[in-house]
Amino acid sequence: MKNTLYLVVPCYNEEEILRDTAGKLCEKMKELIAEGNVSVYSKIVFVDDGSRDGTWGIIEKLNAEGSIFAGVKLSRNRGHQNALFAGLMAVKDEADFVISLDADLQDDISAVERMIGEYSGGCDIVYGVRKSREKDSFFKRATAEGYYKLLKKHGCDIVYNHADYRLMSSRALEALSEYGEQRLFIRGLVPLIGYKTAVVYYDRGVREAGESKYPLKRMLSLAFDGLFSLSLRPLRAVMALGAAMIAIAVGLLIYSLAAAVFLGAPILNWKIVTI
Question: Which of 77, 108, 127, 129 counts the most CB atoms within 10 A of its CB?
């Protein structure tokens, strides 16, 4: 089993925590190399999603300090899903398998070894799934649970309590690259690939510094992208509503014309006069 691992980490305005994150990931990668779990050619790749602070400067310095670090810079802010996809596509021909995770490291990196174990056992995709949402607010927990139920109801195959903490083999990444979605919702696309999968559960931590890059507005945008990109039912419902409104309008028009011609009733205060 080939074992060159690339960690792909999307970043947007993360200068407050990036150094600490890089240190923890570097330590974890060195442990994996020392234990023979991954090759010495493994890397940590930060994807700068058009940050407006010093994020890219830190990535450049990390790269200069050690070859284990690499960076991908987007020309402008494209959003988390596009940044993640760009990073995955940038490394898919170099890595044997990739693990994606967020820069705040709320996703427990101690689960990496278990992910690699599942990969070594023949899985092409390993989902990191949080055990519970006890640390979330009532509002966030209720809306998240409702959203997953809504997606399931509309036929979307999505892993409950899974975000973007996952392992993907090179052939799974190749399959992902074939999707031509404009509004990306990667956590919904990956289950469509169809290769052997596994789940690793972990306890989600708290963000140690900086602010969340997923405020309510962005969460709603991601939710709508997921719903409309994975299911035709919302589109069909809108089309059906539109067709019904057109049918009603045509019916009223026919009724009004008939009433005007045969009964002399006015249409919009105008009266049709027959000669």
Answer: 127
Q: Which pTM does this prediction carry? A: 0.73
Domain that residue 258 falls in: 232-275
Residue 212 and residue 242 in one domain: no
Neighbour-count burial for 120-144, b at 16+ CB within 10 Å, e otherwise: eeebbbbbbbbeeeeeeeeeeeebb
Pair 217, 238 in one domain: no
Q: What is the CATH number of the domain that holds 146?
A: 3.90.550.10
